[in-house]
Protein: Sterol desaturase/sphingolipid hydroxylase (Fatty acid hydroxylase superfamily)
Amino acid sequence: MSNDDTNIDEHGQKRDRRGEWRPERPVGFMPLFDWPTTPKIVAKWFFGVPGFLVPWYGVYLLITVIAYLFFTPEMARMQVLSAGWALEILLRNVVMVGLFTGALHLWLYRLRGQGRKRKYNANWMATNDKRFLFRDQVYDNVFWSMVGVLVWSLFEVGLWWGYANNALPFSGLAANPVWFVLWMLLMPFWRNFHFYWIHRLIHWPPLYRTVHYLHHKNVNVGPWSGMAMHPVEHVIYFSCMLIHLIVPSHPLHMMFNGVTTALGPAVSHSGFDELVFGDAAAIRKEKLMHYLHHRYHTVNFGESAVPLDKWFGSFHDGTPEADARFRAARTRP
Ligand SMILES: [Zn+2]
Ligand SMILES: [Zn+2]
Structure:
């Protein structure tokens, strides 16, 4: 069944002429900044299943703790910069991204485990397309993601070297348990705040043309597109880790910051509104939010933890009304 503007796909989802599907509920922000809000709403968002902590925050934290306990060189070795332990960190990070992003890609795009159910774009990843390295979107995206892992690992090695030599502001769990937990919980908000501003910076035309264009070659995104960036963008993107030069932290904070910065994009670029293993409503909103950024370029520079897009007028909530508003703004002389 179809008419001029829409057709119904194999999952009964309405797709427009360009094959786009949208969830019915608009994009929103985490309820901390939504108004009106109540303690009950905030508590439900925070502790609910799915919610802020479960599943994604918890998954990233678990991965960080395992990497910290079992796959990080001893502190004494890291006092002296050397290729040996630096390569161990690089290898651990390559494996981590390979398994995490690879698993999402395998399930959603290779096995097509949920078909096109809740997939925003009707198409799969591009092949035989000369815009991409190796004429293949996935190979291109994996290549640039791995360059990103190298940049992330360099930041991590430098910071570990600083901790091992007591050269960085340190705050331990035993001495400052409240700050330890609070800083851990604030991390997504710091990352969102940082990302919004660096993202606006790289949309400055000279930087967009030379650097950020590479990420935006991906209009139809998949898990590997998340970290497919120009190396200059990787440096700017992972510079959120430099906060640990200033803010008293435990190395676990630094690692958690790096791990979420490296793995988060695989989820936010998955191209699907909802993954079979259950997603937090907030994360679902975030995926559509960033998908729309790839679709329209000039909207949704940030993510859903901090509503900077709303405050600065670049927010697109995914509704037809917002579509019309931004289209009108673009055609205005
Ligand atoms: Zn993106
Ligand atoms: Zn962008």
